[in-house]
């Protein structure tokens, strides 16, 4: 009689940080609870042998992902934006993108990837190019070697999702935040920890109204905009709406010291 063996799968880490997908036998010839118990025992044996549930060297809230290619575009203010892509052929969207706001960010990107930023053709679109785009071969550049990104979930995205996501009408925040590159010898940019990455993310993205227009560089407008977002949890729909809100909430808004007088 043939024995029908079905495998489950578990992702674990080696002590050096390599992620491996391992088969967990699921015996289809026994009762479900017996099969589940056997699978649990198999996983416990793997952990006892030294396999790890979490990748070593990560802080709470951090995750790690290997990427194999990158693209470049520019924000409306000319800030370089790089996107990273997975090897899986069916994953056509970018895994995450990051603003290179400073020279240190650029140097960290170039050291980690082995690519010069200005050698990557600049994609003219406002959103990152997909791997199945007809011009992907021109604008998505393979990395000389795969690298690992340490990333975290954006709390603003978690809040947006918990409040009803698209049903709220609010613009979806970026889901993933780049914390650092996990490459030996590379500076710990763009941030040294999840907390640092989140603080940076708050300033990395240009301030945008709900109608798609950008907040001006006026310090007063920026301060009022930030106060609105803190109070309401989302961007105001328009500059006019922000002015109306400010008129009713002046007492709770602190303007920059150089302009408050």
Describe the fold and architecture:
The structure is a single chain. By secondary structure, this protein is an alpha+beta fold. The chain has three domains: 5-48; 62-204, no CATH class; 219-260, no CATH class. It has eight helices and seven strands. The chain has helices at 32-48, 103-113, 136-139, 155-162, 194-204, 219-232, 239-248, 257-260; strands at residues 5-13, 19-27, 62-74, 80-85, 96-99, 141-153, 176-181. A five-stranded antiparallel β-sheet has the order 5-4-3-6-7. A two-stranded antiparallel ribbon has the order 1-2. A hairpin with a 5-residue loop joins strand 3 (62-74) and strand 4. The longest helix has 17 residues, at 32-48. The protein starts with a strand and ends with a helix. 19% of the residues are buried. The model has no long low-confidence stretch (mean pLDDT 81).
How would the blueprint of this fold be written?
Elements: E1 5-13, E2 19-27, H1 32-48, E3 62-74, E4 80-85, E5 96-99, H2 103-113, H3 136-139, E6 141-153, H4 155-162, E7 176-181, H5 194-204, H6 219-232, H7 239-248, H8 257-260
Antiparallel strand pairs: 1-2, 3-4, 3-6, 4-5, 6-7
Q: Let me know the average pLDDT.
A: 81
Instruction: Report the helical percentage.
Output: 25-40%
Q: What low-confidence regions span 5 or more consecutive residues with pLDDT below 50?
A: none
Please state how the strands of the largest beta sheet are arranged side by side: 5-4-3-6-7
* Number of DSSP E strands: 7
What is the beta-strand fraction? 15-25%
| Count of separate structural domains | 3
Q: What gross morphology would you assign?
A: globular
> Over all CA atoms, what is the radius of gyration?
23 Å
Distance between the termini: 89 Å
Describe the sheet with the most strands: 5 strands, antiparallel
């Amino acid at each position: 009689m043939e024995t029908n063996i079905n495998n489950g799968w578990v992702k674990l880490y080696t002590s050096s940080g390599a992620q491996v997908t391992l088969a967990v036998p699921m015996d289809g010839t026994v009762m479900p609870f017996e099969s589940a118990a056997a699978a649990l025992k198999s996983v416990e044996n793997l952990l006892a042998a030294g396999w790890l549930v979490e990748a070593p060297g990560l802080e709470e809230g951090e995750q790690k992902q290997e990427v194999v290619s990158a693209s470049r575009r520019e924000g409306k203010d000319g800030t370089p934006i790089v996107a990273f892509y997975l090897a899986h052929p069916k994953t056509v969207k970018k895994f995450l993108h990051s603003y290179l706001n400073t020279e240190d960010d650029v140097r960290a990107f170039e050291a980690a990837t082995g690519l010069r930023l200005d050698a990557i053709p600049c994609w003219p679109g406002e959103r990152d190019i997909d791997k199945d785009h007809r011009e992907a071969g021109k604008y998505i550049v393979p990395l000389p070697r795969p690298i690992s990104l340490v990333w975290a979930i954006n709390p603003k995205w978690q809040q947006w999702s918990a409040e009803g996501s698209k049903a709220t009408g609010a613009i979806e925040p970026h889901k993933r935040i780049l914390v650092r590159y996990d490459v030996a010898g590379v500076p710990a940019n763009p941030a040294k920890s999840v907390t640092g990455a989140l603080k940076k993310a708050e300033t990395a993205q240009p301030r945008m109204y709900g109608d798609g227009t950008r907040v001006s560089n006026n310090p007063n407008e920026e301060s009022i905009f930030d106060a609105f977002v803190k109070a309401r949890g989302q961007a105001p729909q328009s500059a006019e709406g922000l002015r109306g809100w400010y008129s009713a909430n002046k007492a709770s808004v602190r303007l920059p010291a150089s302009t408050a007088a």
